[in-house]
Request: fold
Amino acid sequence: MFNRERWSEILEALSANKLRTALTAFGVAWGIFVLVILLALTNGLRNGVTADFGDFATNSMFMWTQGTSKPYKGLPKGRYFNYKIDDVAAIKSQIPNLKYVSPRNQLGGFRGANNVIRGTKTGAFEIYGDYPEYINQQPMDILQGRFVSYSDINEKRKTCVIGTGVIKGLYDKDEDPIGTYIKINGVNFMVVGTFKMSNSQGNQEEEANTIYIPFTTFGQAFNRGDRVGWMAITAKDNVPITTIKQKVFDLMKSRHKVHPEDDRAIGHFDLAEEFGRINGLFSILSIVGYFVGILVLMSGIIGINNIMLIVVKERTKEIGIRRALGASPWTIKSQILQESLLLTTLSGMIGITFAAFLIWGLNTILDNAGPTENFANPSVSMQVVFTALIILIVSGLAAGFIPATRATKMKPVDALRIE
Reply:
């Protein structure tokens, strides 16, 4: 029974040899501490690496053209071709379960030749021709003004949205860029918005040095016509892009007379597939964390098992007297199990508490230090804590089972004879 007298006996038994009890408790506390910290560090790595993907739609892929590797329908091997704006419409109409299909064009390059001028200042920046929906695939913080609109697309307006790096390179401090003009490859564009990336899977410095203009304006101003450099394609939330992409490839091969088995002609980067691989890697690391932590914890549990065997041996005469006075085997067994469970649970809670303080300290340091590459917000969920508690309870019962069984198998007469 769980009564005050029973708990007094348990506490007295555990405090009879304080040093031995403390050292045994340390083994369990250290084991659960290691388990929680390993899982927290794994989550910190997961958070840091997946943050590199930023807010970019992780169910997306990029698709571009490459040279053909097979001759087909009288066309030679090594032929190059371009996507057209009609291809975008074909994909949208013929491939189901797609959320966004964004054609894109690019001009210049960060740290390349100077291609943007404002007054006496010049700079080398990435210039992208995009449609309005691209902001849904790569969310960004609009600091002032707006992003490209369909009015810009339909009327081929010479408008642009510039990043914080462009502002820093072309404008004076505290100067408002909205409504001003910049010259891109000799063509004047009015600034209608400024942005910064909230999080990014790419080079943040490069993306801050980026300018977005309407796709149609890009084609007209820079003589690209209806050509498409590449596409950013996002599937609906409940449909993996990985399961759809082959249909998109087959459609493009058919439209551009590419051999159906020519896998080199269409290049692509499946962000969803890459994201899945990373999540799979960290799932494995979590399993390894559990495995290592539980092994360390088991060493502490074995220590408790050994201590409880010693305790039972030391109290053999007491157990014999209690049995002679009519105590049932279950009464003896339950007390031993309760002692083991109490020692294990208290030790584990101490380990969890110290782990929580260490995790809090790490997060405080990271918050003060600012963004850290590939590591962010080490933490564990309540599910992990509950799992750890279940492991402790099961381990405590297991550690006390053998000593408790040995205690109940002792005959009272034999126990009373032991000095």
